[in-house]
Amino acid sequence: MISNRLGYFFKDKLEESMISAEKVAHVQLGNNLEHALLVLTKCGYSVIPVLDFEFKLHGLISAARITDSILGLERIEYEKLETLKVEDAMQTEFPVIKGDINPERVVRLLVDNPFLCVVNMENEFQGIITRRIILKQVNRFIHAPVEDEK
């Protein structure tokens, strides 16, 4: 359980620290793997969300999953990049923050994930919370002056 003081600090900062959906690189269902690999390479991220045309979250795609999907028995089959779709290679099982942002759950999930996708109750993509953002918040909290509790 997160201490009350840290919990209140996080609760106040988390929602304003979320990177909004408009600023997050993503690909759409139906895009081919070549397009996804180009987006991943250009933006420099290892994993990005997969959305539909209504901005609903369906999965995550990574360079590793793309590479795995084009590995043949004797060679890398680059020609598959044009024909395989994002939905053929995307990860569909991953933690998501839905509705209310619980600081304790966010911290626990970010131990094993570089970022968490945030969706509303209709599964519409709202943005991401990154491990980097949380560590910056923890750093601020640790270095904040402590008020006398008398």
Automatic annotation (TrEMBL):
Q: Where is the CBS domain?
A: 23-71, 93-139
InterPro entries, sorted: CBS_CbpB, CBS_dom, CBS_dom_sf
> What is the protein named?
CBS domain-containing protein
